[in-house]
Amino acid sequence: MFMRASDALSDKKDHTEWKDQKCWWKRRRSLEHEENAGQELSRGGRTRRARRITRKKHEDEGFFMGMLEAVIGNFIHSIIFICQVAAVATCMTLSLRRIKKQDYINLNNPQQDVDNQNISLSLNIFYVLVLAQGVIFILLLMNLLVSSQRIHIKFVYKLFTRSGRNILIRYQNDNFLEFITGNVRPTLNMNLITFAKNLVVSSSRDDQLLGIKAMDGILRSVKYRSLVLVRLGASLDAEALGKLLNLLGRNRDKDEKDIRGHAARVVLKLAPNLLVENFPQILRLISCSLLHTSSMKMSNMDVDLVWFGLRILDKLTDNPENCKQFKDHDGDLLSKIIDLTNLCDHGSTRNTISDSWIEQEIIPLLQKEDDIPHPFVQKIDQEIIVGMSLNILSKLVATSGAAGEDLRRETSKHFNFLSNTGIILEHVEAIKVISCLAIDAAVRKEIGMLPGIMKKLKDCLLSKPPYVNITKVAAKLLLLEYSTSEQLNKIQLFIEGNQNLEDQTISLPVSAFIEELDKDQLLPPWRKSIVQKFDLEDLLLAPRTNHSEAAAEALCLITTGCQNNVVALLHEIDAQELETIVNMLSSSSEDAEKEKRRKLAHLEGRNLDPETLRTFRKIFCAGGEEHARRSMLAKLLQNLHAYSGQEKVDHHIPVIDKALSKVFKAIVDEVATLENALSTNGNLSQIKDDLQIKGGRVLESFMGLSVQICRSVDANYFAKALVDVHLKLDTFVQKLKKILELFRSPTTDFPSIRRSTLELMTWMVKNNGSYRDVLLQCGVYEQLNEVKMTARKLESSKLFHCGVDVLGDHGILCISYLANELMEQLQLCPSFLERCCYREPAGTISVLIA
Asked: How far is CA 188 from the centre of its chain?
């Protein structure tokens, strides 16, 4: 009885733990039970704080009693074990002494030799057996080493539950049986994750449940996850992986639902390396099993199943090849994803996460050490689910080729999901969806007829940083419940400091402050496992968003080739807002640095603690990428200028025309940047591709805008624009020629860069004949031959998005025709025959191969 005392107490403890963790795969355990318990306590008039204190007291008492039982059991076990060791040591010592002395008989009586020999032999056999028994007992002590190793594995691989103990015992026993039957090599090569995989693909439901729980627990170990995934990938063949995916369809009873839940967590870790083409059933399983509740109300929805279903889809759609397989799916998966974007009423602050809600509801609640109420948790989960759904949808509609065209067409049938335009301000992914849908001309027209969308996009375009990723903020709000009171007090001090600021231009939204908090700031070390439990790792690592850049791209696509949309947008923009957009063309890095220093100086004077000050610096010093936004703004202004000849919006044209000098300066500065990179590296091939792409995009858009403006002004206005930025004509022409040299092989990122350059040169010589002589002196004529030799078909396109020519067959002249036209204009120069023979000194202009 005493020998089994510790095991009995341990079994009792494990049984209680098993009852508590019967839904261990869920992100929140027994949420419904806690809510019901809270309602019962509320009837007694007790506050949430009192309920939390009572629950903590019960948890502490349960933990103390469990530890007391374990200590008593281990104490009894230790006493019995020490007695056993003492008894065995005594027996072995006595046996060795008697065998060594051989003093069993009286040597003084030789008449009893025969009897003495028999007695000696018998006693020797007896003492040898006693000694052998002691040796065997010592060998059995080796099990203690196995037990200690088992405890270590439990902590390393997060196998704390009863199923974790069972998988270890099963692994030990099965391998021992295999070893004694002669299967030595397979036994030595059998690791724990492979053993769990074998149980998962077996035909026994109990083995499947045991194996999938073990795999889920092991994959939650952050330290060893990558190694485990490598070993699991090596042991999973196509058939075994197919069986694992099929577990997502189990839902007949509680055990099968547990199998499905744990399988969803495991498949999520394997999803980045899965090809839907090889396992087409995965889309059907996700649609039917995990997202089957998405059409229900949130109160009846299994949020965890929907969560993991979307997370798996998010990982799958990171691979463009997987996105193409969605068009062949016969189910309603796409419509379910679109339905999930409507969970929140973003037109009402009551159902969305706002700064005022965080300041007035969440932070005071947590400071009182209350739990976040279930309705608030539900609200946060809704926001995250909407963000994940939009992110998946944005990747699907951005698919290239025929598959992308089909997906965009299917999505446009449900275009009413954007009727709630508040989602545009909250989630930048919604703007990306609009951009991709605007590739189709019919959808572009439909978007233009929704003034709410145009207005929200304009508001996003004119918005100022910091830009907040609301999905990331929502994820961090879930972790604030486990933060220390010290961190919550820092957030409260930030809120109070914001309210007391005299200069509100320095104030920051509390959501931006929470977004920049690190995991180490949010959680104490002993609480970091919550991140894995809630499956928030990827959300916490989400990149920064730029709503202004995304809105500029969307408006550029919406207004391309659609005059009605241009008119609709110009009706939403007043003269001051248009001037603001024009001013945004300038990089104005000096002004930005000056403003940044002013804000930081003010912060340092507020005597903030170092940690909070570092958070502020991260917000203010976040380097936004301006190249893409400036490029899209220039294209947008180009569209507005090109199609704004009607409907009483001509008063906007002079505002855009004033930007000509800024455009010229931007062109010269960007070419100079590329030249400096070239002189440093010696060869264009050594310049980073991203630098060339960024520069090409900016130059293409600014060249197109300059051409559009020049068509509405005269040569004098052109010359004045050069003088305003202190540019000489020959210097400007040299930069234009340099563009033709640097970008001999345009790509879909900047298809019309050389065409716009030739159009501007042609306009210059047509409007001022004296410019022909300058172009000839700069060697433009010789460069035109290179242009004709390297002409590409894509240069007849104006804009590509998602690999698709937005305007399609639009009748734009090919670049060879433009080069010939400019050459004919240059030949009209009176001194053409003399001038064209000159060459610039070697090294002044170098022809570069892109």
From this structure: 39
DSSP SS3 for 460: helix
Per-residue HEC secondary structure of 514-556 comes to HHCCCHHHHCCHHHCHHHHHHCCHHHHCCCCCCHHHHHHHHHH
Backbone angles phi, psi at 410, to 5 degrees: -65, -40
Number of domains in the chain: 2
Coil vs helix vs strand at 804: strand
The residue count of the chain comes to: 850
- Sign for the CA dihedral angle at 185, 186, 190, 194 comes to positive
350 burial level (CB within 10 Å; 0-12, 13-18, 19+): exposed
pLDDT digits (tens, 9 = 90+) for 322-359: 999 998 887 789 989 998 888 776 555 556 788 999 99
Which residues have a Cβ under 8 Å from the Cβ of 627 and sit 6 or more positions away?
694, 695, 697, 698
Predicted structure pTM score: 0.84
Please report whether residue 713 resides in a domain: yes
Contact by Cβ (8 Å): 818, 758:
yes
Determine which helix (DSSP H) or strand (DSSP E) holds 8, and give its type and residue range: helix 5-20
Name the domain boundary from 91, 125, 140.
140
**For residues 572 and 559, what is the distance between their CA atoms, to the nearest angstrom?**
13
Distance set, CA 130 to CA 96, 102, 133 (Å)? 9, 16, 5
Q: Does 816 fall in a domain?
A: yes
Structure confidence at residue 41 (pLDDT): 36
Helix axes 162-180, 205-219, angle to 10 degrees: 110
User: What span, in angstroms and rounded, lies between the C-alpha atoms of 426 and 241?
Assistant: 38
Flag whether 400 is in a domain.
Answer: no
pLDDT tens-place string over residues 464-487: 888 899 999 999 999 998 888 888
Q: Domain range holding 773?
A: 659-835
Alpha-carbon distance of 552 to 473, in angstroms, equals 24
The parts of the chain modelled with pLDDT lower than 70 are 1-22, 29-64, 66-67, 70, 104-117, 142-148, 293-300, 345-351, 504, 587-592, 605, 623-625, 644-649, 681-688, 808-812, 835-850
What does the pLDDT read at residue 707? 95
In a domain, 758, yes or no: yes
